[in-house]
Write a structure and sequence with these properties.
Chain lengths: ~450, ~280
């Protein structure tokens, strides 16, 4: 009798781990979503603006977010390789999507896109960017652009105007140098790939987006004279000291803070820097401003970047639930709520932002910049950021190789030759992300 | 029957050491992005690695790193340990002080040096520069980046050697030391004829381990410079990491890891030989 009781107890205990699954089998199906690192405030915002309302609106699903930190990418790759991983897959950009789709780890989203109306709701360009081999595998979670931040108070004081051409930019930078200011407040001490912000800027503003498109599609090599001129221009700015003496010592945030204090005049940076404006500008009694980066041939070019993408795991046991999560996110309501409290990370590529209502606390400058970017993308007047459109090894080399040019360990020609060789190898291996045709 | 006690250890070694090691060897001969199915590529990864100038500069940096760590922290450790032995007053306090950096997490040590010492904005170097003593951040100069990182690692590391050497020195028979003192030996003579010969096996062991550890150097380089500027502080492990996790070229990363292992194996050979000799004695 005693032995039988013991056996029953043992079996009961052994079945304990299965209980949650059995419970879910009856009512709720879990939807797992692994997220990268997020501050405690941002984690709360995800809970209150995504998890709780989604679960309330979808009684059959149970969404949970697992914060995996900065190693998300590595953990995800190992998990996906072993056939596990989350239902909603967060990747670092289109180049990762291509490899994962090729390996059959992602679920094609075309049916969901048609059924749930994503094709009508999202900017077509981003639907193209999420494709591999003709099928849709990913939706852009956030998109961004590069431009020129500047200290408007400093500009007004000195009678300066925001530059509209490269020539004006250089004249202004020279004047700033003459006054002992650093023209470009920038640094890469915490994020070495910050180099490619500047490479992306000159590629689009000096070589032009058409030439970058040709290089990305293999119509011209990366050693083309137009690309060479762009890299030479960036090198010239470095040698003239536009980036100041502490580029390798300053973090992105420290460098941006120098613009607020008036030690630096301008900051060529991305829309993610908007989050730093409330921290540094009001305390220095300064006003920030942002314009598109001037180009050689006329109006500014908005280089398009995708910070991260969202997909569905091919092995997901609740793909419908994962699709419902994506559907919930790509809506005016979620866009408005999330961007009101957390700007820069949730700039979802919605086609129509007219129904979006952001909180009064959001900088009008940010709202305006995002509307300009959305309009430019909608009209096909966009450029290319290297971290979005280049395959991984080419992109990594682009970052470190540029330092070799700046520090005179390599000529621009040799740099581009190696870049071109690496690109060709990756292109042959099918690692170049989808490049949508230009309008 | 008692051999069964070895089974758990063997299983752990097989799963955690042997399988990943063999997989690394296999992957070094494969083309793999870490996502799709690997394909056999022969010696392509090694050819690509050896044709890359960055590999050779990383290897050179590893050798420079090894030389630095074979000399500076060992000399500092020996000097401090002998002082602790000969001047007993306050030796416990100094042992704790010297050992403290060892127990601080690497990332904190690195960030403290980066932000509070080297930084031109928030660091001591910046403060001195503003006071008219211009000091450039060593991490920002290609010619000094590796030495700047090595300095931080040295600060973190030498206390460990000091404590190890001190422990070894305390095993030296007191009568030898007293005899040398009575004979009028000065500090240099005491070190040369009494202390160093007595702890030679410990020094040798630490030197061999230094060679092995130097080729595994990763954390401080990665946190402080990520191998830059312009690859000037790149070492083999950061090169392998970049290939694996940024270039998505796991095959070439495995090839670089094998090169690192080669140096480790040479060190291990000498280590095992030394241990055998000691055992025989």
């Amino acid at each position: 009798m005693q032995r039988r009781t013991l056996l029953k107890t043992g079996l009961g205990l052994a079945a304990l781990p299965l209980l949650p699954r059995l419970a879910f089998a009856d009512d709720k199906k879990p939807v797992g979503f692994w997220y990268e690192s997020a501050s405690p405030e941002n984690q709360d915002e995800l809970k209150t603006l995504l998890v709780d309302p989604f679960n309330a609106a979808h009684p059959q699903d149970d969404l949970s977010i697992d914060f995996r930190g900065s190693d998300l990418d590595k953990q995800l790759r190992i998990a996906m390789l072993s056939g596990s991983g989350p239902d909603v897959v967060f990747t670092a950009g289109p180049s990762y999507v291509a490899s994962m789709a090729e390996a059959g780890q992602l679920l094609p989203l075309d049916d969901y896109a048609a059924k749930l109306g994503w094709n009508d709701r999202l900017l077509p360009l981003f639907m193209e960017l999420g494709k591999y081999d003709g099928k849709l595998y990913a939706l852009a979670k956030t998109y961004e652009t590069l431009g020129l931040f500047y200290n408007k108070t400093l500009f007004d004081k000195n009678g300066w105007k925001a530059p509209t051409t490269i020539a004006e930019l250089e004249a202004l930078a020279d004047e700033m140098k003459g006054k002992g200011l650093v023209p470009f407040g920038s640094g890469n001490a915490d994020w070495r790939p910050a180099n490619e912000h500047h490479v992306s800027i000159v590629l689009n503003s000096v070589a032009g987006p058409e030439n970058v498109y040709k290089a990305l599609t293999g119509a011209i090599p990366w050693t083309d004279p137009s690309i060479l001129a762009a890299i030479d221009k960036l090198d010239e700015w470095w040698q003239k000291g536009y980036f100041g003496p502490n580029y390798f010592s300053l973090t992105l945030e420290q460098a941006f803070a120098q613009v607020a204090t008036g030690q630096a005049g301008m900051a060529p940076s991305g829309t993610w820097s908007f989050t730093n404006i409330p921290t540094y500008f009001p305390t220095n009694n300064a006003e920030a401003a942002f314009v598109g980066f001037p180009s050689t041939n006329g109006p500014p070019v908005y280089a398009l970047g995708i910070g991260s993408t969202l997909s569905i795991n091919a092995k997901s046991e609740n793909a419908d639930g994962a699709a419902a999560v994506l559907d919930y996110m790509f809506s005016d309501k979620f866009y408005s709520a999330m961007n009101s409290v957390w700007q820069g990370e949730w700039n979802l590529p919605l086609k129509d932002l007219s129904a979006v209502k952001l909180s009064d606390k959001v900088l009008p400058l940010y709202t305006e910049a995002m509307k300009n970017l959305s309009a430019a993308v909608g009209a096909g007047q966009y450029g290319y950021t290297t971290w979005t459109f280049l395959p991984p090894a080419t992109d990594t080399y682009l970052v470190s190789g540029m330092e070799e040019v700046w520090l005179k360990k390599l000529t621009s020609k040799d740099y581009l030759k190696k870049l071109d060789d690496t690109f060709k190898q990756e292109k042959d291996a099918g690692k170049v992300p989808a490049i949508p045709k230009r309008a | 029957m008692h051999r069964l006690y070895l089974v758990p250890t063997l299983i752990i070694n097989f799963v955690i050491v042997l399988v990943p090691a063999l997989l690394t060897v296999v992957l070094a001969f494969c083309n793999w992005d870490g996502i799709s199915t690997p394909t056999f590529s022969g010696l392509d990864n090694f050819r690509a690695l050896f044709a890359d100038g960055v590999f050779w500069s990383a290897l050179t940096n590893n050798i420079i790193w090894t030389c630095i760590f074979l000399v500076v922290p060992i000399a500092m450790g020996l000097l401090a340990a002998s002082m602790l032995l000969l001047v007993r007053r306050g030796s416990n306090f100094f042992q704790v002080v010297y050992f403290l950096p060892v127990v601080i997490a690497t990332v904190i040590t690195a960030r403290v040096w980066q932000g509070m010492i080297y930084s031109p904005v928030t660091g001591l170097f910046g403060l001195l520069s503003r006071m008219g003593l211009p000091l450039a951040n060593p991490l920002a100069q290609p010619s000094t980046a590796l030495f700047g990182v090595a300095t931080v690692d040295l600060w973190h590391w030498w206390g460990f050697l000091c404590v190890i050497f001190f422990a070894a020195l305390r095993q030296v028979p007191q009568e030898h030391i007293e005899a040398a003192r009575i004979e009028g030996a000065n500090y240099g003579q005491m070190m040369r004829y009494v202390l160093l010969p007595a702890i030679r096996p410990t020094i040798m062991l630490m030197m061999i381990m230094t060679v092995i550890w130097s080729f595994l150097a990763f954390d401080f380089v990665y946190i402080l410079t990520q191998g830059g500027p312009a690859f000037s502080s790149e070492v083999l492990s950061t090169l392998a990491y970049r290939h694996a996790f940024y270039d998505l070229n796991v095959g070439q990363a495995a090839a670089a890891a094998l090169v690192i292992s080669l140096f480790g194996l040479v060190g291990t050979f000498f280590y095992v030989r030394l241990q055998t000799q000691e055992g025989e004695q």
